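Morning!

This is the sequence you dropped in the shared folder:
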Amino acid sequence: MAIQQISIEEFIALTETNLVVDVRSDSEFSHAHIPNAVSIPIFNDEERKVVGTAYKQRNREDAIKIGLDYYGVKMRAIVEQVENLCLVHNSKTVLVHCWRGGMRSQAVAWLLDLYGFKVFTLKGGYKVYRNWVLNQLEKPWPLVVLSGFTGSGKTEIIHELAKLGQATIDLEGGAHHKGSSFGALGMPPQPSNEQFENNLVKQLTHLPKNTKSIIVESESARIGNINIHHLFFNQMKSAKRLRIVVPLEARLEKIAKDYGYFDKNDLVAAVERIQKRLGGLEAKRAIDLINEGSIKEAFRILLNYYDRNYLSHSPFQSPYNEIELSNTDAIQNASIIYNELIKNQ
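The structure's back. Tokens below.
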């Protein structure tokens, strides 16, 4: 079999049904990678450093010899790992890439081709993939921003809309953060900004091509430590909007239920992070109420701050359709919003 070097568009199409092998080092992969790719590094971080130093300070030939010393003892293990993974995919086709489509991917592709796999390598490597990701973010997407005060249940509504067949993107789910000072509670560690973008583009490009609207939640440009790329955020700012209005008491009940089971020390720490903006007296009152177990009343103080901040600092200036909801029942509210979307399409 012959190894085929293919374009990013061809590579992406083949990732749907075949094994993707990322042969970059552990740290390169953990920072960001193509979604669903498997890490099978030809060199670990230290080995990569040694080979790179030899290449820069000595010559290409010495670097290759040193690389072969590291690679030679791993060759059987790489073949067996790929073999086992291909059984899962029920395919003997393997997609291989490194950073630039250079010697690392070529070496592994040669080995796998020699063993009998059908091998494709990505022309330009992961670097070309990242350019493709940014190009996708720049494309116009039919976004509709779902906005509303904190505690309105927007994220849950988005999940229920997806079940109804509406195209949605859960930005907070992708960022592993709920957006506020309390947003990291109960969430896994945040991905890198780059990985967040890679995952976002995978979601966008997997939507049906005839999608008329994509619901996203109103967010600031930053979700925890994640910055939404300006190419996408600018589209959000100018997108159509649906603004839901939910009574304060219903929002308080929901927030108390969502956050009341967390450790008091974690809740207090979240209040302390916004103490300057909240004001010393209000922060103290909220912390005292948390320590007393009066979570709902503590959040009454905090919602006053978040509501004012939402109104005065919202980046979304486009007109909106307002929908009044009587409670935070996500299934019921998603049905109301879905009917509104259908009516306006």
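Headline: The chain has two domains: 4-134, 139-343.

More detail when I'm at my desk.
O.
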